Every structure is written in structure tokens, then in C-alpha cells.
Amino acid sequence: MPRLTIFYRLIVRPLFRDPWRTLLMVFAVALGVAVVLAIELAGNAAAGSFRSSVETLSGNTNLEIVAAGGVPDDILGRVAQLPFSIEFHPRIEDFAVLSKGETVTLIGLDLIGELNGTALAQFANQIDEHELSKVRGNSDVWVGSSLGRKAGETISLMINDHTRPYLIEGVFDDHAEGGNLIVMDIAGAEAEVGRAGRVDRILLKVPEDRPLEEWESLIQKNLGEGVQIRPQGSGTEENRKMLAAFRWNLRVLSYVALVVGAFLIYNTISVSVVRRRPEIGIVRALGATRTAVLIAFLAEAGCFGFLGALIALPLGKLMAFGAVKLLAGTVDALYVSSRPGSLTLGVETVLLAFVVGIGMAVISALAPAREASTVAPSEAMARAQREHFVRVHKIRDLWIGVGLGLAAAIFSQAPAIAGKPIFGYLAALALIGALVFLVPAIVAGLVSLTSGWLQRIFGVEALLASRSLTGSLRRTAVLVGALATAIAMMTSVGIMVGSFRKTVLIWMDDQLPADLYLRPAGDPAADRHPTISLDLAKRIEGLPGVSAIDQFKAYEISFAGTPTTLAGADLRVMRDFRNSDFLSGRPPADVLNDLRKQDFAIVSEPFANKHHVRSGDSITIPAGDQQATFRVADIYFDYASERGVIIVDRRTLLKYFPDPAPSNLAVYVSPNSDLGTVRKEIEQASAGRNILVFSNRDLRTEAIQIFDRTFAITYALEAVAIFVAVMGIAGALVALVIDRRRELGLLRFLGAATGQLRKMVLLEAGLLGLLANVSGFALGYLLSLILIYVINKQSFGWTIQFHWPVVVLLAALSSVYAATVVTGLYPARIATRLNPIEVIHEE
User: Distance between CA 626 and CA 228 in Å, rounded?
Assistant: First the structure.
């Protein structure tokens, strides 16, 4: 028998007879694939398309000279005197804030030397060298065309803590540079951003007659110990490396919807096999081979995957528009400043959609398709054989589930591989697999235990509903497994996020001892450290109601190939650390006494975990134009930065970085002074400066708002997975009703009322939801332990204290259960419309 004929008669015609169920399954697959595409597209836009300022207006360069805190100007003189034909391009790199609050990249260039080979080359023919030389040292600006401004206008910019108007000398096309650029002469930029005597980096163009490695070695000999020469763009690669774990975890989370969809594909093909066993027997008796039947059912799954992928392409891009804003905010808050790139469906993305959609569908259908191919003609009408097989082997499956649970426990103890918690993910997969094998025993056990009191409470309909579920144990187990998996992920992520949130709140109570906190205005980002004028800091310190201020200064450095923050704290002001602030449990006074010594530092827990550093170890870091070695006095809990932080005494920091302007101020108010009065005095003292003043409560509120925005994408992914699972329950209940036409028709024939049938179907939906909630909650609790103590710890280095978010979990589980019961309304309606005479006549 031709395979196309088999496919049409065995697969296509039944699908057209049940179009709503077919469309429901295709949409479920499409939604799962769309989530994967949305996260991939949004990740590429928010992080993958990240362009650091070193890549902006870089021209044709291939090496760069960098140093923590900036490259001293004398290094530029050394490079210029080398007996080689080397082009060098000093740069200032910072950020400015427009009047409407938008942050833009500010680049300081030697405008005369930079006209060739960059987007500014168009000015070479517009301005002669004499006119251009007039701008040297002033603070007029050139703006990118994406800002929509014109030459001759003024533009208001906030740089550090001051805002003033700047004259626009010209406009250049910045679309190829990522957009939103402002350029200033390097001498004027040094003054505006406070980089006296230092530039952020020097870009080099070396001849091609030698390998880059040889040029690096030659030039490095003429640089200081703390000054580094490296391939141009290395900073961007470091940031991308840092973002790898974040994107990896997002990708894994996005595949949850696919896992749920895989369950539903498996169930759909299983239902198809059960309902078409007579047809399978007939075509087998007419000469169809087992391979032909296997291919027919795999082709059905492939069609689901193909159609789902087609729908997922536009749907995924639409979802990505919302996801990219959430991801971009998270990247800025935790990692590095970035400008979201464009969302484009490239060839690779389209291929990903079809590979994921079709691959997931075909793999999910392998087991039921193989079952269909093994049906012998003589067994075609043995509809209950497979259900009997599942019931008989549920004890065997129970032991397999226990074995997978033990494997998960072993995997959870393994270390990370290349910074990725591979074994943590394997432990989570093993737990999900354990649930799959345990579900038949769980369903049979719980239904057996509860059927008696269900009958007493809800009547005989409850008894029939419970026996129907155990009678179709195989199908019930798949449905419960699919919904339980989605509930488990929702529960585990809810517990993890709730625990993290509570831990951060407790930590902030410990770490915010000051009364008021000051920082420059503008959007905070992990790699932005604008400064407050030193004269303003001294003015605030001298106010009568202020007892002391803690001046905090931060710099970006590179440690072991990853971006890290080096900071100095004013230890003359005794900070109110508690014993729990340090991993060792040492008294805070002892740790701070060590830290006051010039060769001691404390490091954050993420830094220690990322770089395998322990108390007492020594670390060598670039500090200005030197290399500085510090002994780690202790490790402190920190949830403000995933990048890792090294803190030294402020006096030690000034030894290597002479810029005294602080990044933040912590203000301690005198006990006999009124906090509100002191705050007004500070605001009056900082009039004309762009300074934000926060109380303890204000700072906590802002931090929690950032935290909630960070995890909004996580909640959205879990909601999609739950939605897919609930849709699957609806489709499966419809299939159950259709497949039990004879049973339901017989009940109607024997006198059952339509209300009783409706009640029975709704009770089945309720039992499915209850079983899924119980097993999903248990699995979710175990998964949350892996998320908190394995995956999160190995990925980000944070120690999270376990907390139960009771209200959130109750609301979520109740909503899912209610949705599951509601899905039973349509199948119940179908059941009540069955004509008993027609059904009995068909049989």
C-alpha cells in the first residue's frame, strides 16, 4: 500500500474530523517554539548585539592600551616615541544624560587626528584645519544623526553631577556605530568628565608585517606593570563572556514550555494510536509494513512541528519586542551598559525554529509511533491492552523513578563546568524524569486512597470519574506529568525568586546603616560610576547636622579576563557591619582593622565563587599603572552586583588612583538632629548639582523595583509554560470524551442525566488538576533546592536563604487549579450532547 495513501487515510482524514483539537495542538507547539525564539532574539538584541564604547568610532585599529582608572598621559608619549610606524588614537569614554533622561555614549577624541577612517571623516571636507584647531580644549560637541539635532543648536547634557548646555558643532551619521553618540574633543572631554592627566584607552593601528602577538610583546615592554596592551575589542569579549551564564540560564528556562509541549505531543500521538487501532489493524492486514505505519505517525508529529514553527516565527518576534526591554534593563542593572540592537529574523533563527519545532515533535512522538507500528492485525481491537501494560508495570516504573531521583542527588553535588552548572541542569532533568515514571504509581495510589471519601462528598459521579482516570492510566499519567512539570517549574522559580527577594531585603537592612545616601542622577548601571564633586562632598560633611560621611569610589578593572569592580570605602567611618555580613563569621571590628592595612582587601561572595578565592588568599590586580597585591581579609555577602567587587580602604585606593571625587556618599545624621531638616540642608547645599538623595527606605524601594523588573521575564516564561499545559489539558479532556463515546452513551442510555455527565467530566478535570498540583508542588520544592543551592550558586555566586513565598504560591496554585477545572467545561458540553441511541448503534 503506498505510503502517501496510508498517511492520508490513517492521519490526515482523522485530523480534519477533529479540527479544533488539531489547531489547539499546533498552537501549543507554536507557543513553545515562539518562547524559545523570543528569548533568543531578545538576548541577541539586549546582550548579543552589545557594542562597548571601544567599538564605537574605532576606525581601522587592531590593538588597545588600557589601565584600571585610565591610562596616564605619559604612556601616550612613550608610545609616540617608539621607532615604529604606529598610529595611536587616545580616547575618553563615558556617558551623558539628555534632558529627557536618555543615556547616550560620550566619546572624547583627538578630533584633528580622528577625521580619517571614522564616521567623522565627512567633516574633513567641511571644516579646514585652522577652524578645527579652535575646538581643541573646548567642550563643543558633535552629535550622531540618530539624536535628530542640527548644527548650531545647543544640547543640554548631564555629565557626572553637573548639567549645562553644549553647542553642537556638527552632526554625523552614527547608525553604523549603534546610534546615540556624542563626540567631544579629548582635551575638553578630560575636563568635563574629570579625567585630568588620564585617558580611558589608546587605540593602536600597527603595521601588518608582524603578528599581533609580537607587536603586543614589543609595546608591552614600554608600558607600566598595570598598563595592558591587548587586541582591540577585548573588553567587549570580556563582557560577552560575563553575560554567558545569564543568557544560558534564560535559554534553559525558555525550553520549559517546549518540555511541556513535548508531553502534549506525546499524549496527542498516543491518543491517535489508541483511537485508530482498528484502522491500524486494517491497513496492516492489507499489507502495510511496520515501517510505513511508523513513518505515518512520525509524519503527523512532524506536521505539528512544521506548522507550529511557521506560526512561531511571527509570534516569537512579537513576543521578543516585549522581552527585549526586560532583558536590556536586567543587563544594565547587573552587568554592563548596552544599547539594544535590532530584532531580525535571520536564516539561523528561522532554522532554529524549524529544528526545534520539528525535532521536538518527532522525538516526542517516537514512543507512541513505535507502539503503533507494532500493533498486529489480530490485536487491533485490544484497546485496553496498553493501559493494562501501564498498570502492571507501574511498580517497575516506580523503582526507575526512585533511581532517577538518586541520580539527581548525585548530580547536584558535582561542580560547575566552565562556569556553567551543567550537572545542576542534569539533576533538574533527572527529577523531571523521575516524576514521569512516578506519576502512574502516584495517580493510582492517590485515586485509590481518595475515591471513597470523594464518593461520599460528591456522589457516584466522583467514583466514576476516579475510576475513569485509573482506567486510562497511561493517558492520565501523561496529562498529569505535563501539567505537573509546568507547575513544578512555576513553584521552583517562585520559591527561588521569593527567597532571593527576602534575602536581599534582609541584606539591605544590614548593609544600609547610614541615614541618607547620595549619588549622581541618571539611570544606574553596573559599569557606570559617575562622580560627585569633591567640594560638594566637603560642603555636606561640614553641615551642622551631619556627624560623618562615607565616601565610596568605584572603578572598573579586568580580573582574570572578566570585568570586576574595584572600590574604596572610607573606613574612618565605622560602618555598622554585623557578624552575618562575612562568610567567616568573624567580628566586623577585626575584619575592618585588617582592611585598614594597605595590603588587605575584602571581596564579594560572587567574586570569590567566580574566581575560587578564599579568605587568606592573595590577589594581584591592575591598579593605575601598577600591579597591586592584596591579601583577602574576608568575604562578604553581596547582592548588588554579579560582576564581583573588591573593596579596599579609601586611603589605599587613593595611593593608586589619585582622583578623590567619590561615586557615592553615605551620610550619618547626628543623633540630636532632625533627619528631614538635614535632608533639606543637603538639597540646598547641592543646588545646581544633579544629585539624588535617598533615605534608607527610598533606596530599598528602588532596589526592590529593579529586582522585580529583573525577574519579570522569568515570570512571563513560567506563565507561558502554564498556559501551554492548561491548553493541553483542555485538548486531552476533549479527546477523553470522544474516545469514551461508548461509555458515556451507555450511561445516558441507562438513565444518567446530562447534569451527572457534566459533573463527572468536571470532576475528572478537578482530579487531574489536584493530582498535578500535588505532584508538581512536591517536584517544585526539590527543583527549588537545586535552583537555589546549585544552579544559582554556580552561575552567579550568590548564597540565597530559603524562604517560603506562601501568598504567591497559594495564589498561583489556586489559579492553575481553577483554570484546569474551567477547561473541563467544553468537554463536559460535548459529553452532554452525545445522542445515546446513535452511539450504541455505532458500536
Answer: 10
